[in-house]
């Protein structure tokens, strides 16, 4: 697969009080256009840092990120982020949260009416048109995350970055959001990079799973290609022996070869 | 519990009248009806519960006060003699016989206009400085200790410096208001900007908002609760400052009125003026609190 988003020999370290700690070491990864890639690893292994570097929110010490043949410098709407804790602006309605992004990204390329239609279209993609006039504080956690996804999609990003998007949700809500994301991915064909610590979620949604070793100085341990047809039905998947094989491979990597030291 | 049962029964009979006997789905609507019916008598009760206690206490205070100070030889007038001596002042706040012989409304409104100007300037300057300091770690480190010291200087301590600088009563009064009320505005705004959730800023960064857009669309609304807390403290302090500084500066104004009545030994007029000062201060505080609630609607919840 040709490389659309590529991370090349990237290392990240943070300096705090004169102590330099290496978070990520020599990470190389390439993602094709339209591909859905999950990054999985134990907490503290620097998964989110990896995503933040791609988003441009964190500067790498060495190496870099190339998206669509251009080097990434600083954050930008072509790499839209769905944040772990939704990060909706609580003083704006759900509609206005999406509208803020649309108004900024399409200021010169869409008319007012087109921007409105585009907001509504994206709210519809996440099935949230009914709550568009409500404020984030007035809707459930799952709905907030849907709006967060709509906001990110509305930027028409080259790559969608999901930072543990379902981590704070209960299991049932999580499943329905995973279905929603799978469906959107199929419809829009966007390139997705998702951070997760949920093995089932990673296998269910991904084309490939990138397994990270433990930090400090975490790096790519193994990459697993999930060769299962799409669309994937949740219940059918569970019975599919391939699903369980993939699951076992990831679990084996996480819990026997790279088990966490006593947490 | 019995009340709830009664409501259930009455709701059920309503259903029977409207929809006939066979509507099992109506059961769902019952708990909601129960809550609504329960709240209604509560509303009247709530108002009574919040209004009655202060009214009773005020009446009791007046009675005790009258008993203590009712004697004509008493040094301090009781409520009845205040009513006798200061009737015109209480009944007609709008009279104007020229000079400083005016109704309390005119004195208060002169003082309020000084507060509006002095505090308005302090609010604008305080918010701008606070944003700069909150966004700039070194400015915070360098200036915060100085502000913490200056904010404890009482209003009247600034007055001599102010008079020396401006040499006239009016600008001196404005300066005293400005300098006493600006500190809480600066400090609270700076804290609000510094405590901005990084997530909101990241949203702005991903959208590549310009610094001006970042300020108006993210920083100002997110810091609004802090800013308005500062403004609320500030306006209270400016009201303290104006009453005190007018006492020394003279002219029209509620502070000077109080001092003038003291010199004329009209204690009862002072009591009336004090009540005005208190009520206006209370109104100012609630006004800013209301503005804050409107401006930061929804910011607190997320």
Describe this protein's structure:
The complex is a heterodimer of chains A (263) and B (302). Chain A is of the alpha/beta class and 263 residues long. Helices cover 37% and strands 24% of the residues of chain A. Chain A has 8 helices and 10 strands. In chain A, the strands form 2 sheets. Chain A has a 6-stranded mixed β-sheet with strand order 6-7-8-3-9-10, sandwiched between helices. In chain A, strands 2-1-4-5 form a 4-stranded antiparallel β-sheet, with helices on one face. In chain A, helix 2 packs parallel to helix 4. The model of chain A has no long low-confidence stretch (mean pLDDT 90). Chain B is mainly α and 302 residues long. In chain B, helix 11 packs antiparallel against helix 12. The radius of gyration of chain B is 27 Å and the shape is globular. The N terminus of chain B is likely disordered. At the A-B interface, strand 6 and helix 2 of A face helix 9 and helix 10 of B.
């Amino acid at each position: 697969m040709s490389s659309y988003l590529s991370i090349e020999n990237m290392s990240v370290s943070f300096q705090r009080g004169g102590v330099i700690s290496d978070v990520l070491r020599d990470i190389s990864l390439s993602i094709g256009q339209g591909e859905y890639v999950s990054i999985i690893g134990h907490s503290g292994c620097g998964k989110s840092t990896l995503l933040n570097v791609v988003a441009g929110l964190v500067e790498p010490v060495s190496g870099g990120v190339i998206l669509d043949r251009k080097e990434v410098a600083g954050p930008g709407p072509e790499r839209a982020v769905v944040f772990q804790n939704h990060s909706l602006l609580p003083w704006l309605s759900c509609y206005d949260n999406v509208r803020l992004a649309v108004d900024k990204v399409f200021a010169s390329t869409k008319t007012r009416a087109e921007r409105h239609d585009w907001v509504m279209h994206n709210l519809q993609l996440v099935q949230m048109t009914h709550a568009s006039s409500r404020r984030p504080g007035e809707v459930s956690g799952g709905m907030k995350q849907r709006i967060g996804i709509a906001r990110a999609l509305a930027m028409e990003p080259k790559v969608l970055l999901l930072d543990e998007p379902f981590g704070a949700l209960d299991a049932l809500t999580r499943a329905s959001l995973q279905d929603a994301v799978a469906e959107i991915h199929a419809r829009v064909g966007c390139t997705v990079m998702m951070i997760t610590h949920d093995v089932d979620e990673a296998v269910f949604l991904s084309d490939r799973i990138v397994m990270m070793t433990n930090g400090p100085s975490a790096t790519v341990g193994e990459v697993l290609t999930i060769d299962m047809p799409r669309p994937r039905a949740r219940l059918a998947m569970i019975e599919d022996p391939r699903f369980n094989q993939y699951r076992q491979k990831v679990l084996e990597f996480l819990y026997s070869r790279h088990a966490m030291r006593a947490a | 519990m019995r009340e709830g049962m009664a409501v259930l029964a009455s709701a059920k009979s309503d259903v029977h009248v409207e929809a006939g006997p066979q509507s099992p789905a109506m059961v769902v609507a019952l708990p909601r009806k129960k809550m609504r019916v329960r709240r209604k008598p509560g509303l009247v009760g709530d108002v009574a519960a919040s209004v009655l206690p202060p009214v009773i206490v005020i009446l009791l205070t007046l009675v005790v006060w009258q008993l203590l100070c009712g004697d004509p030889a008493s040094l301090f007038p009781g409520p009845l003699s205040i009513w006798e001596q200061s009737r015109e002042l209480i009944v007609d706040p709008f009279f104007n016989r020229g000079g400083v012989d005016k109704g309390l409304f005119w004195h208060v409104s002169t003082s309020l206009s000084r507060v509006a100007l002095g505090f308005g300037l302090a609010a604008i300057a305080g918010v701008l400085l606070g944003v700069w300091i909150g966004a700039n770690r070194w400015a915070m480190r360098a200036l915060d200790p100085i502000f913490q010291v200056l904010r404890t200087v009482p209003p009247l301590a600034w007055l001599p410096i102010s008079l020396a600088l401006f040499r006239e009563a009016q600008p001196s009064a404005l300066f005293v208001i400005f300098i006493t009320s600006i500190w809480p505005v600066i400090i609270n705004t700076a804290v609000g900007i510094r405590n901005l959730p990084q997530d909101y800023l990241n949203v702005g960064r991903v959208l590549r908002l310009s610094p001006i857009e970042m300020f108006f669309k993210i920083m100002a609304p997110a810091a609004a609760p802090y800013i308005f807390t500062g403004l609320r403290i500030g306006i209270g302090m400016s009201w303290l400052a104006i009453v005190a500084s007018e006492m020394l500066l003279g002219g029209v104004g509620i502070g000077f009125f109080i001092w003038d009545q003291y010199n004329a030994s009209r204690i009862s007029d002072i009591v009336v003026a004090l009540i005005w000062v208190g009520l206006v201060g209370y109104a100012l505080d609630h006004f800013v609190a209301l503005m804050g609630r409107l401006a930061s609607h929804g910011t607190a919840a997320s």
